[in-house]
């Protein structure tokens, strides 16, 4: 597949990807940059998850001052700016392979009023990360929903360990054990639909991510990289019906991926259900019906460099 031309002037260099997509492409093949607004909305929606992880970070660090924060795979910088706000003595760097998303992160930092302590770095996380520590080793490295994308997790985790100060922590947000954003019986008119849809989504993700990316044993991977696991837990975020506009958009997007590429996997009635859920003009659509709740499952972990 053709490489994105932008890569040639990035830190590091474009290279082959065993799993067959460039690192500026999201699962499904579209450019990450196309997801800017959506990633920003979703980042705001999962704020309770981020708050929990920040509480875990603070507990792990005790009274250690936080001066350097790296947000790896920051996208539009929702967590970067949150971290800058929560750690007022810190300088935070939004790190991503996508320049357009980093431009959004810079805009957000200005909007939130932390631009003086936030900068951005165009970096491919599959390359050496040493330059990120040039201004000082990191007290906190944050990586949300990005490490499942890297071709060699051990190599990237070793690089992350290298940019962490001794006693500094890596904070992870990753997939939970559920692939669906809706509770099991959220679509009562079509029993089993949510689970069947989740199965298709899982297959699609698996096909677009590096092998094994959905089954990573995070504690083992962190320990193998020479980090001490401080906390590792599953968090479930539930939003009751009726959903607000942002929650509806999240639910809709979680259903859409399968609609783009997995249609052949559904039977006729499931296809009809999916079409109605996604048709904003239909009374049964995600954007209109008032009986749909939302459920997001994530794994969060904090690991310390000894
Ligand atoms: C699912 S988004 C997560 C964004 C944000 N951290 C969040 O939790 O909402 C994945 C992000 O990782 C970035 N990314 C994927 N592979 C990357 C790589 N090899 N190097 C740098 N960034 C990468 C994408 O550009 C995208 O912004």
Descriptive overview:
This protein is an alpha/beta fold and 306 residues long. The protein has a domain at 5-178 and 211-239 and 294-304: 3-Layer(aba) Sandwich (Rossmann fold). It is built from nine helices and seven strands. The chain has helices spanning 36-45, 47-61, 78-86, 99-112, 153-163, 193-208, 218-224, 245-261, 268-278, and strands spanning 68-72, 91-96, 118-122, 138-144, 164-175, 228-239, 294-304. It has a seven-stranded mixed beta sheet. Helix 4 links the parallel strand 2 and strand 3 (118-122). Helix 1 crosses helix 8. The radius of gyration is 19 Å and the shape is globular. The model is unreliable at 1-21 (pLDDT under 50). The protein binds S-adenosylmethionine. S-adenosylmethionine binds at residues 23, 32, 39, 42-43, 73-75, 79, 96-98, 101, 124-126, 144-146, 149-150.
